[in-house]
Amino acid sequence: MNPGYKLSPVEASYSFAFLDEYAKREIRRAILKAISLPGYQVPYASREMPMGRGFGTGGLQVTLSIIGPDDTLKVIDQGSDDSVNAVNLRRFVEMTCPGISTTSNTSEATIIQSRHRIPELPLSEDQVLVLQVPYPDPLVLIEPSEARRKTMHGEKDYSRLLTRLYEDLIRFGEITISHRYPTRINGHYVLDPSPIPRYDIPKLNRSRALILFGAGREKKVYAVPPFTSAEPLAFEDVPFRTEDFRDPKTGERRPCSRCRSTDSFLDEFLDTKGEKIYQCSDSDYCNHRLFRKGSRPEKP
Amino acid sequence: MGYVAIKGGGRAIKGATAVLEMLRTSEGDRGTPLSLDVIETQLRLLTSRVLSEGGLYHPPLAALAIKQMQGDTLEAAFTLRAYRSTRPRLLETPVQDTSGMRIIRRISSAFKEIPGGQILGPTFDYTLRLMRFDLVDEDPKTFRSFVRRFLKDVPEDRLPTNFPRVVDTFRAEGLLPPASPRDITPFDITREPLVFPVPRSAALSTMARAETGSLLALAYSNMRGFGDIHPTVAELRVGYLPVLLPHPATGETMEMGEVLMTECEVIAMYEEGEDGGSPVFTMGYGACFGHNEVKAISMAILDRALQKGMRDGPSNPSEDPEFVLLHIDGVDSMGFASHYKMPHYVTFQSDMDRLRSTRRKAEGTGQDKTGKGYDPGGDPA
Amino acid sequence: MTMQTEMTDEAVVASGAAGTPVPETGQKILAVRDLTKIFGPGCGECLASTGPLADTNVCPRCGSIIALAEVGFNLYAGEILGIIGESGSGKSTVVKTLYFDLSPTGGEAVFHHSDMSFNLFTLNAAQRRWLRNHRMGMVYQNPHLGLNFSVSAGGNIAERLLVCELYHYGKIRTLVRELLSRTEVPPGRMDERPGGFSGGMQQRVQIAKALATRPPLLFLDEITTGLDLSVQARILDLILEIQREFMTAMIVVTHDLGVIRLLAERTIVMKHGRIIEAGLTDQIIEDPQHPYTQRLVASAL
Fold it and tell me: Which domains does chain C have, with CATH numbers?
């Protein structure tokens, strides 16, 4: 014991982007490897971050390793810049990366860190999308051993995963995978695209922006480089389908109750009167449409 | 315009932080803030646990983490671990022989007498777990004078500085396989991810900072019957181990301080020797920061189980390196369990879409669940 | 990939046991030489100190089990070769090594198919997997080894078709239905899991799965053991029909002389990891040379 121990100034402060420089360099090397092997899960020594595993520590390590003072960061969770976890992560990056800018405006951001959504607005070559990943491996559905899964990926052996889809079709007449839809990148590796809805899967295909995936707890980084093919696993005669927002009674697609958009992913919830409401999940997209129409968005 | 979903995350977080702080200080005028020294000494086993699971030997910071996280060991270890992420690794200690440990407790259940002697030391093992009501309203005077009286009454026993390890006597007789070579470079789990199969040193480091309860549960499963280890504790020791580091300029090894550690070696049933040699006992090793005997014993049992699993293939969960090593980390597992509290609106929306669509299909076509399934048109079902 | 030079018939009986030259027709599709499998550390005396003469397959020096010792034979397109022996004779180990379930300690096996030759034990994991999935089929005694019981009967067959990159659901369904009909499994039960099927039907699902890719080479390991006699007879008939229809070469492993008599033109008799006798099945049954074979035949009569 050291009675009355005083922490030294070095011990009691944090450096730019929280992680030590060696860690950031190592993660950047993993990212480069991930870009070189599209869809391949690169193992890295994931560090403990000051928020819980599962709260975006993988995405955060990727963001912190690539961010510099001239970057503009947008952080969203469930499509919203203002949800608790997004606020928490953004605040942390602002605190540990002096000089960077943050925004909620999708087109202004150079780095977008997101959980569960890809923004509605198409991304550009100048942007990097960082997705937070709880389960990096789509094969975990059918094979618990990581060592065996690694061989299966290497041999492009996805027949058991496809058999799972076949079984869905015979039992339910539908593929039941709702989100985290297994997607084949560049004709080889099948990845778990993180828990984005099927609605967002087509946005991965030949994306102009670099898409990086960071899994903190499972310690993997992987990438869909720009202009790379991304095809959801499906049968030739059973097309991949995104979420259906049509009203089964009228057959019409439901509009967002705020901005009336009929081409965005919708959140469904009950208002205080118990009535069902449909609203854009991407809050920035919704706000922009409202601005364009000349009405002000309601303050949340 | 319609209803707006409640978001306002920033305000909510601020509120949560304030309530937490209010609860911590809710004694109000009667309260005294906990000092780090009080935590480190009076809650020394709690501090030990946090040091060990945090994987960073820094008792004042461990005490701070305990104070800040209001006594939650998982959260405190996690905070210490996150702090560690910010520090570069500058030097590596050489692989060390622990016979130079400054012992405060040392026992062997294999022999009545061991070279150097048994030292019971600080242990609750043979104290009765009866409530000590005298501690409810403890007299500060008695409290403060005990250590003085203790040191006065206890004769200064000249303890030897070097205790031969019990397992060395087994080795000398050839009853145990020889020790692994000292010159191997141990796997550094803070710099390399586990990609299976992993070497034993990776397994040992992972277990050394594992969550105590998780290790205990898996080790217990092996002892109880989902495994075959009936261990004998060859030696359990608690003491201070010097930290040796190479001098940055000269490279010469220097003692830089010491760390409190618990170390355990268990001996289990014998097996055929390598290359047709005589049968030998098998051994498991456990060690962790701080005073945490259950953890060290559990680790030693699991080390022995994993060695068997790595060699012959696992025949139960505690022998499966992937199963054990990927599920014992407190930071990983508690984080993931907690994350389910976060919003999952989007994925749940997706789930509802699938269920509704599937139900429509079942109802619309009148097919039962064992029906012919998806009909792409060409299916002559 | 190496091409094998044509082997003489003597080489078929590689373990040196007496055997009559056997007429062989058709294209050779498999040549096995010196196939050896030792469980245990192995030592210099393993082979010399075990075998039918020593009457053991356990090496007295190092305790290793000699499951196979320098076994060799040829297999021709469309032919059914029987391997018979008691348990522990190594007969199942032969097909397990050829199907890559076990890796051999030594020896060579060359598989010929449409102008290509594959030296089986020098292939990498991906090549092995490809051959297993595309060119070979296996039916195990224990259906749990050949079928995934958490997937429907049809799904089991679909998996094999998916491996071969057939990604059309409608076509997969049609093929699955055809294969199950061909192996006499009611197609109406194709979406049920095999756990609810009778033992005979589970074997027929395994056969359908093995046949899904129309492999030129099929391994059958004690597939009727433990089944009722009437069920056995129907499965054996099915095997014969398949052989005629698809010209599939097969290696049939059994301890049952009746199975050999019905299915195999040529037979290998094994004991303690060695081939002790080989030749035309009729000759072996009518004029067994080795005392063990004589006992086997006598007991079956």
Answer: 9-135+215-300 (3.40.50.300)
| Residue whose entry in the numeric block shows the structure tokens 């608690």 | B238
The secondary structure of C92-117 as a DSSP string is HHHHHHHTTSS--SEEEEEEEETTEE
Residue B8 token pair = 């306002």
A78-122 pLDDT, tens digit per residue, is 999 988 889 999 999 999 999 999 999 999 999 999 999 999 999
The answer to ipTM > 0.90 is no
Give me A178's structure tokens.
């709702």
Asked if A52 reaches chain B (Cβ–Cβ under 8 Å), the answer is yes
Residues B274 and B208 in one domain: yes
Judge whether C151 is closer than 8 Å to chain B, CB to CB.
Answer: no
Q: Assess whether B64 and B155 both reside in one domain.
A: no
CA distance A103 to A283: 13
Is the domain of B128 the same as that of B253? yes
3-state secondary structure of A132: strand
Indicate if B290 and B212 belong to the same structural domain: yes
Q: Characterize the bridge pairing of strands A266-270 and A230-232.
A: unpaired
- Any chains having at least 3 CB pairs less than 8 A from chain B are A, C
Torsion over CA: A147, A153, A154, A158 (sign): positive
Structural domain count, chain B? 2
pTM here is 0.81
Instruction: Kindly report each contact of residues A156-159 with a partner whose C-beta sits within 8 Å and lies 24 or more positions away, as own/partner.
Output: A156/A188, A156/A189, A157/C129, A157/C163, A158/A182, A158/A184, A158/A190, A158/A233, A159/C159, A159/C160, A159/C162, A159/C163
Domains and their CATH numbers in chain A = 21-136+182-232 (3.40.50.11310), 244-300 (no CATH)
Asked whether residue B114 is assigned to any structural domain, the reply reads yes
Distance from CA of B376 to the nearest CA of C (A): 6
Q: Which domain, by its residues, includes B72? A: 32-88
Contact residues, chain B, for C170 at CB < 8 Å: 376-379
